[in-house]
């Protein structure tokens, strides 16, 4: 998603500025500024969002720890009910709950009652860096086209290359997720093309008005 956002937003910005009549240097500067601003925005937004999730997880763990200390019998019964609901008979569920609680009570409740595991734990800084990196990689692709394309064909080159980038990204995502390749690719390409068309139209309107 980050790479897709980087491609679409940067390409749309480039086409909008190009349609307004800017020269190649101004277009490149606008594209680079869009990459930096977009990556920073994605990182900040992801950090805040995941930090909120992390705060919620910490509060849930603190509350669960207090309940384990004050109401161990009730918490044990909750674990037994969870395992029975997953298909274990009551006797075995009670034994599993007893052994897991004896080994790591808070860890067992975090995993099976709250759904918090080591792999799913919120990591704000990691999420922010990943989001910024994927956005930057996507945004860099249309900028490379700006650097290589002739000035008189820059807009068409960026638009065409962006559609190819989006198609490849959509197909790759569909293959990785086991989804239908055509529908996933068409969806990404369609909305990307629409975003570029709208932005280019606005740029052309302001260019004429100027």
User: Termini distance?
Assistant: 35 Å
Tell me the helix content: over 70%
Global structural class: mainly alpha
Number of strands: 0
Task: Describe, in short, the structure shown.
With 210 residues, the protein is mainly alpha-helical. It is 87% helix and 0% strand. The protein has helices spanning 2-19, 24-70, 72-85, 90-114, 124-148, 154-177, 181-209.
Task: Outline the structure in words.
By secondary structure, the chain is mostly helical. The chain folds into 2 domains: 2-48 and 130-209, no CATH class; 54-114, no CATH class. 87% of the residues lie in helices and 0% in strands. It contains 7 helices and no strands. It has helices spanning 2-19, 24-70, 72-85, 90-114, 124-148, 154-177, 181-209. Helix 1 runs antiparallel to helix 6, helix 2 (24-70) runs antiparallel to helix 5 (124-148) and helix 3 (72-85) packs across helix 4 (90-114). The longest helix is centred in the N-terminal third of the chain and has 47 residues, at 24-70. The model has no long low-confidence stretch (mean pLDDT 87).
Which terms summarize this structure?
about 210 residues; mainly alpha; 7 helices
List the helices and strands and how they pair.
Elements: H1 2-19, H2 24-70, H3 72-85, H4 90-114, H5 124-148, H6 154-177, H7 181-209
Helix pairs in contact: 1-2, 1-5, 1-6, 1-7, 2-3, 2-4, 2-5, 3-4, 5-6, 6-7
